[in-house]
Amino acid sequence: MEQAYTFQSDGLKLAGILHLPEKRPANGKLPAFLVLHGFAGSKDDSHAELQARMIEDFGYAAFRFDMRGCGTSEGAKGQIRCFDQVADTKNALTFLASLPEIDSARIGVIGHSFGAAVAVYTAGIDERVACVVSSCGWGHGERKFRGQHPTPEAWARFTKLLEDGRRHREATGESMWVSRFDVVPIPEHLRKNLSPKSLMEVPVETAQSMNDFRAEDVVGNISPRPLLLFHMANDSVTPSEQSLRMFEKAGSNTELMMMSGTSHFPLSPDNAPRTRAIIKGWLEKFFPSPLMG
Fold this sequence. Notes:
CATH class: Alpha Beta
Oligomer: single chain
Helix content: 25-40%
Largest sheet: 8 strands, mixed
Distance between the termini: 19 Å
Radius of gyration: 18 Å
């Protein structure tokens, strides 16, 4: 069962889809997950939608939504900022907790890539988050970018892009827009995994926001709430060291799992069965749904 909703976040109307399994637990209340989409992404036709359907299949409610400026949500299109997305996630949690079908004490957050970084940060500053699943996420923006632009020449191009964007803003009062692949390189053969509704250009301020974002600074606050750091071992988009470093800073009830296979998109067809089995097994141990079979 799917139902469309809108909710308010800092005066903006954001759009979401609630997935509800057909069955209900005896008390009528379902544990739930917010599902956060990736960089310049969408709740629809995306890895976020695949995650939401997986979570629903496991016996949870799942609420996937478009961050401000993305998809069908309000906000300046493409003006993506990490802390804005943290605010959107907190407001989505407030909304989801108000629904009669939801157990407000058992709401987790699952995110992929950029969404995983936002999920970890949100849980690190908001104790209402009961559980976190981070998929191919990152904890330190500048170090992540150094891994994504690894040669001296590539790093020089990226830092020049940031500087050019600052100068353009100072000179014109407007943003300088660039290809999303100049910010986060993705090999050509993996781009088929992006939502067709993803944004292909972003302002340089988005890259600066990501560069300055440090989810690993607050990851230790999540414990003893359960945290899964799931990553593809040879991720060619987001370096797997990002999850490893977060694991080193995290507390109890944190597990790090790395899986071989197609890079960065663990719910792609080749990886989906193994990914689903790993995440389901972890949830059964740390954050079970009464509907799990």
